[in-house]
Design goal:
Blueprint lengths: L7 H22 L2 H8 L3 H5 L5 H26 L3 H13 L10 H9 L4 H27 L9 H22 L2 H17 L4
Helix pairs in contact: 1-2, 1-4, 1-6, 4-5, 4-7, 5-7, 5-9, 6-7, 7-8, 8-9
Length: 198
């Protein structure tokens, strides 16, 4: 029998209330008591709207990822050039407007779930590949618009870009050194400058 939530409104409340909790504490670190405290609901109310904790965690991950994507789309769409659109990602991360206090959900989930939770690992992998894909698309469009050199390998450039952004977040958060974030993101900026037609 297919699970049917009792209330879509309550389901959304649970997702919003637990999104930062799961992002900060992870799947294993988040207890039902944590979820009850965050939502101000009983266990019965939570599980009346979700089959289990896993389903809450997956919905919270999707919510966190979509929140970041919306913020990024706003700054990327406003940029007038393809180079500007890619650099807008760096500005968004550098200014701290994208990642909430729990950190990057892609990174948090990928690190926690790589050996422990296959469905969450897949969601994080899909998110990272989508991030890379969006940069590949912008580079290819930039090549077509003669902003970027024709000999640029968009896949390699995009993968390097994503690795630098995610690495910058990881190192900055682990060391509690914001200057590391700025330094690494500046390297990513230089990489994009180097593929431009001069």
């Amino acid at each position: 029998m297919k699970f049917v939530p009792r209330s879509e409104t309550t389901r959304n409340l649970i997702i919003e209330a637990t999104a930062e909790l799961f992002n900060k504490k992870g799947y294993a670190g988040t207890s039902i008591a944590d979820m009850e405290k965050a939502t101000k609901l009983t266990k019965g109310s939570i599980y009346g709207n979700f089959e289990n904790k896993e389903q809450v965690a997956l919905a919270a991950f999707d919510y966190n990822l979509e929140a970041i994507r919306k913020k990024i789309r706003t700054v990327v769409d406003a940029a007038p050039s393809y180079k500007g659109k890619i650099l807008a990602y760096l500005d968004a991360y550098n200014n701290g407007h994208v990642v909430n206090s729990g950190g990057c959900p892609l990174q948090n989930t990928a690190v926690e779930a790589d050996d422990t939770h296959e469905e969450l690992r897949k969601r994080a992998a899909d998110g990272l590949l989508a991030f890379k894909g969006s940069i590949v698309e912008l580079i290819n469009k930039g090549i077509g618009a003669r902003e970027f050199r024709e000999d640029v390998n968009a896949e390699i450039a995009a993968l390097t870009f994503v690795a630098l952004v995610e690495g910058a977040i990881l190192i900055s958060r682990a060391t509690k050194d914001r200057s590391a974030l700025k330094t690494i993101l500046e390297s990513a900026r230089k990489n994009i400058e180097e593929i431009c037609i001069r």
